[in-house]
Specification:
eight-stranded mixed beta sheet, alpha/beta, 10 helices, six-stranded mixed beta sheet, 273 residues, 14 strands, globular
Length: 273
Amino acid sequence: MNQIRLVALDLDGTLLSLSGHISKQGKEVLGRLHDQGTAIMICSGRPLYSIQRIMEGIPFDYAGCLNGQITCTSDGTILQQLPDLDHQETSHLFALMKHYPMVCSFSKGEEFLHTCPTWFLPFGRLYQGLYWLYHKITHKPHYPHHLQRLKDIAPDHINKLCFASFPWILKAFARHLDPKTYAIYFVNATWLEIQPNGVSKGAAITAVQKYMHISKEAIVAIGDGENDIGMLQEAGIGVAMGNAMPKVKQQADQLAPSCHEDGAVVWLKENLL
């Protein structure tokens, strides 16, 4: 543990509490790690501006944004950028989506937009209302967006597509996708993320490893969703949260308590401080 030079952390379901915040203890532990010379990397499905907003006032060095599509320093200097979904790939996903009751959220540049099939629009708006109510009750930050019709969306310059629906619907949708074309991640049972094949948090970890000139054994990674498996595999020590999905726990070297118990911070404090 004394040889650890880089700590890579997922946000949602890992470092963040149910209310979407980093605990006071978490801020203290990350600060102490940073002060002792350990680099902090945030690996998230979120874009950089969202990571910076969450980490405001908390030191971190690197970010693997959009599941590793963009790897950069905390101030935005790009170390590696992988391709967006191309027109053909996005058009195929949109055409397939027309047959399923789901809401799609996606990054387009620095925008985060929402759409759904036209026939599902009334239910999509109901879903958004319930989602807003959930954030209100749990005191999680919520940034509402207008739900656009699918036919009004141009299928270009899209970083990733996120699909929200019931688990069995998302699984049926995912069965139509070629893993040689797409990176397919179940972040949780009701949230599916799709990007070009080759995009992964593992690729982001490798980019920072080369930039820092460190070995794999000098890296700890902690996560909970299937999009975290790549970074756990590329770290010398891969840690799964207590609330992690089963496939993540199978790939992990160690387990931490759940995010409800501030498990990532507890593990870091007990093992690295």
